[in-house]
Amino acid sequence: MRTPYGLEIIESCLICPLRHERIFCDLPIADLQALQGMSSLATYPKGSILFVEGQEPRGVFILCNGKVKLSAGSADGKSLILRIAEAGEIIGLPGTISARPYELTAEALEPLQANFIGRESFLGFLREHGDAALRIAQILSDIYYATYQEVRYLGLSSSAGEKLARFLLDWNANHGSDSDSLRSVLTLTHEEIAAMLGTSRETVTRLFADFKRQQLVEVRGSSLVIIDKPGLQQFLVS
């Protein structure tokens, strides 16, 4: 079944192709059936806001496909992208678990499908399903690690060049086809990368040009190839 956004709709968690690839989706059948019974499926166009920073937590969104930008803003209008959530991930977890306002704004980077589960239903589900609760604890640990990576970019890098080098090496490690691959898909714009690194779009564009000129990386469309990994690593002084 296709939607106006061109998405391949996933009708059931039980037949989802991501089920065995994501830690939370790969639950026992009985758990998945209970989870699906309390979920509301919806599709969203690019640019949709799923929740905003400071909003009281309504529940969690499980991404069936598509990507979501998670960002924090300041009073003067500046924005910092903390991470990009992808298909199979759960967003809105920290606020839903802690009952504190959402700490980030979630915006669809592309058309997507997501299952929404209200806060009370989700907490009740975790109380009754220990295996799922344990997996949520692991996911929260992963979120902590991802946040730590962002702090490294901003706090431990002595220059914009080092920030971008760290970002490209980490991105390739996390999104390459395998552990030894030097090729990955990078769909973020220069402006979005700048928002992740706490710098300007102009600086990111200039640094990409420098890296290409030094034959450290190659970018063709959304394809990123690290040509000289040791060369990029020389930027890392921390």
Task: Summarize it.
The protein has helices spanning 29-37, 93-98, 119-128, 130-156, 160-175, 190-197, 201-213, 229-233; strands at 40-44, 49-51, 59-65, 68-73, 79-85, 90-91, 105-108, 112-118, 183-185, 217-220, 223-226. With 238 residues, it is α+β, with helices and mostly antiparallel strands. The strands form three sheets. Strands 1-8-3-6 form a four-stranded antiparallel sheet. A four-stranded antiparallel sheet has the order 2-7-4-5.
DSSP summary, beta strand count? 11
User: Given this structure, which CATH class of the largest domain is correct?
Assistant: Mainly Beta
Q: Which H/E pattern describes the elements?
A: HEEEEEEHEEHHHEHHEEH
Q: Please, how many domains?
A: 2
What spatial order of strands do you see in the largest sheet? 1-8-3-6
Residue-averaged pLDDT, rounded? 86
General shape? globular
CATH superfamily of the largest domain: Jelly Rolls
List the helices and strands and how they pair.
Layout: H1 29-37, E1 40-44, E2 49-51, E3 59-65, E4 68-73, E5 79-85, E6 90-91, H2 93-98, E7 105-108, E8 112-118, H3 119-128, H4 130-156, H5 160-175, E9 183-185, H6 190-197, H7 201-213, E10 217-220, E11 223-226, H8 229-233
Antiparallel strand pairs: 1-8, 2-7, 3-6, 3-8, 4-5, 4-7, 9-11, 10-11
Helix pairs in contact: 3-4, 6-7
